[in-house]
Amino acid sequence: DLQICQHRAPTCCTKKMEESYQAAVRRERTQSIQALNFELKYMIVGHITAFQEAFESLLRFAENRTSSLFETAYRPMAKEAAEPVKELFTDISLYILGAETTVESAVLRFFDSLFPLVYSRLINPGITDLSEDYTECLRLTRQDVNPFGHYSKNMVTELSKSLWASRMLSQALSLGIEVINTTEHAALTKECSKALVKMQYCPHCQGLTLIRPCVGYCLNVMRGCLASVSELDAQWREYISTLEYLTNEMAASHDLEIALTGIRNSINEAILHAQLNGPQLSATVDKVCGQPRQQEGNLSSDNIVPVKEATEIQTFVMAHTSLNSKRREFINYMKRSRTFYASIAERLCDGDLVMRDSSTCWNGEDVV
């Protein structure tokens, strides 16, 4: 009653043993594909982690630099500017990690929050009436009066270029993991598991436990079993090319590090532009929002903690170097894995599975 290991000679197998063999080949094939995938997946996961750590380090550095701008140059508004600065960098982080947001909305929201502070603390430092209604009026007026000139739009353009490449790379790496995980658990067809039993275990039914499959026979069986997986070859090669393009984009003119550290200067230029045009801004705002109450004397700016910039610069240099070397190392490894899906049958038939250094092997029917 054997279905797979039918042979003219007497056999020591039963139908139940054949079923056990089918379960065994399915388990073994999954394990061997997982072992092949492990190095590739480990490399991608490692790069995702290294990329995110270096990115977070750069982001903290850029955020501290921006905070220190307010604490050194614009002390009257430093305390109140802390929250908008934090929100801006949180939004940037979320964008890179794939959140449904845009760089433009993050930057413009920041400048909307900044204008009431610049207006009431720097342009008209005597204002005390910062009611919710008046603040909201200033926020809404910002888009019409354009107090920060072209600097806010320039910041959107610069950040969008470099952060786009980083966002795409982050998503591409996650996609790579998804593809590998899916191929790991690709179900074997009934025909395939029968072919694998015939190749690996039918010799056992004749008592030939040391005979292994012939190389050509193994390749034919594996290619048949993995036809659906090897079809990924063209797309995988294209995927590697895309990764290469994105890492080059990040390292070239759209350098993430330069863009993040440039945020401080962009904000500084924008505030200076608003101060230079203070009288015209005041005239326009008074017409739209009315005249707020004034108070003599300077406003206090207590509880400002200065930023230790020296250690931050050291951290930045280390993160920058780490990110660049990780990029190079990673893309060189990925380039070597271009043929991963095309050569998967060859790699599974390599090693202990087949008979390489012997004159006898199993061809599916007999020892040859």
Automatic annotation (TrEMBL):
The entry's keywords: Cell membrane, Glycoprotein, GPI-anchor, Heparan sulfate, Lipoprotein, Membrane, Proteoglycan, Signal
Cellular localization per UniProt: Cell membrane
Membrane topology of the entry: Lipid-anchor; GPI-anchor
Keyword RNA-binding appears in the UniProt entry: no
UniProt-listed PROSITE patterns: GLYPICAN
Residues of the signal peptide: none
Designated name of the protein: GPC5 protein
Species assigned in the record: Anhinga anhinga (Anhinga)
Gene designation per UniProt: Gpc5_0
